[in-house]
Amino acid sequence: MSNQEFKPVLLGRVGRPNSQSLESYQADGGYKALAKALSMANTDVIETVKASGLRGRGGAGFPTGLKWTFLPKDINGPVYLCINGDESEPGTFNNRVLIEEDPHQVLEGIVISSFATRTTTAYFYLRYEYGRCYRVLKKAIDEMYANNLLGKNILGSGYDLDIHLHRGACAYICGEETGLIESLEGKRAWPRIKPPFPAIEGAFRRPTVVNNVETMACIPHILNNGPEWFMSMGIPKDPNNPRDAGSYGPKLYCISGHVNKPGLVELPMGITARDLIDKHAGGVWKGRKAKAVVPGGISMGFMSEAELDTPLDFAGPGRVGCLGLGTAAVIVVDDHTSMVDVLYNACRFFAHESCGQCTPCREGTAWSTKILERIRQGHGKLSDIDTLLEISASIGTIPGTTICGLADGAAWPIKTAINKFRPEFEEYIKSGRKSEARQLAGAH
Amino acid sequence: MSELSENAKKVIEEHLDRYPNKQAVTLPALHIVQEERGCVSNKAMQEIAEILNLSSAQIHDTMSFYGFFRTEKDPLGKVRVWICRSLPCMLRGGEELLAELCDRWGIQPGETTADGSVTLELAECLGACDGAPCMLLNDELSLCVTADDVQRISRGNA
Question: d(Cα B57, Cα A424) in Å, to the nearest integer?
Fold first, then answer.
């Protein structure tokens, strides 16, 4: 189907009057998918989600149904579902819109997923900054309890579930699934060494599934329309690559930075970055050209202008040296902007958000920021460029020096900015000029 | 005299049955106290520890990890204003906005105006990149703001 004909699925109800209310959600067919799921065996719900090819929307793209099957078969005692609403990757705001505008779509997905995984307590971990989301969710959850959609014996099925909202405290690392679990448990959000993976030992040392908000929003539609419908959208798996799981379904793309119309767009997975910018974001602002584009949150690194015809599916960004699709948050940088300033901003973010547990990450993110600070002061040396590359090759789970992927996310903007824009860094250092961008003595 | 109000204690205790252990109520308790008092004092920390059957060092360990919580030496003003400086906001004037507010209020990020009305904070991505530059007032986002907007919104809430 062409993108012009595409009818939004996840954003289908956004903008309707009272889109947040249970009444309007049910008038639009809401909670029918839940009734259907509750009439099925929980394992059949898992099989349906597995068959749809749905991959997690939080950044790693792990197949959702498969993740659920990693729970032990015979479990005595509780299983937990944690919803990762800690959306903090720079450029990303799709979960915010989904929750604020259509909370019941997300919550229906959570109840279905909880039933599938035999969870009776779900924790919705929400970043503190999303206060409006918190209040919208609180109201929606109250409506659900009042209408037998949560609590005991949901819709007469014999299935019980409670959902508890849990607010974060402004720390990016809580979006890492085991950091989230530690934070939920009331500790500092230091990610855990894996294995054991959460499916075996997660929250409160019990089998746990951690799923993203947008992933949850997909679930009711898969139950209603079937796996084949979901697979009719997006990019099929590469027949020549047995490890490719395909990129199916609708996807929310966040577009920000130097475009005329920043915003949230829903499309079948696989649109190119160029079409996304030109056809769905009004093009680059001020009649300028793009210099660099982030495909999926800054931890994925940068694409150059010449790479903008890359499809934004799970496999596309990796083919041009980026870390992956990430959160599909596209940030456009115009050709009047210095890549030194852009990379400095990215490095400073990771230095601020490193949890400090692993030395290579704590020190690597801090030193890469300091080196770029020095370059911006006009005191850079050409050898700084290779030092930055060396740092980026030494930190992360890929070289095997850190517990979690935050440092890989810190490394990728460095690698891609320098590999793709090296002459600009060299010219900047040789000129000895100072950045025109303002600098503040940060409090943190 | 107790540092935690009766209401704060009650609300903290209401959280206990949501989790399989008491430690999980640490973050909710810290939020409840800071919302009420503008900081979490040492004494409050000890009282939270008592309710949760923990050592106050465990509460401190968690609290100090999240730059979000303030000690009694460094309490919040009446309102807390966060200005985003991450890439999408930086590309659309977030850094200049933060610098302008520092100039107007005569404070650095993290500090509170002399009259105690506003605490200014720098934020990493607030998740409102569609409305860059954006701000957070306490926990409400405002999109596409100017320095005048920030001042108006802050005054309206202080």
Answer: 49
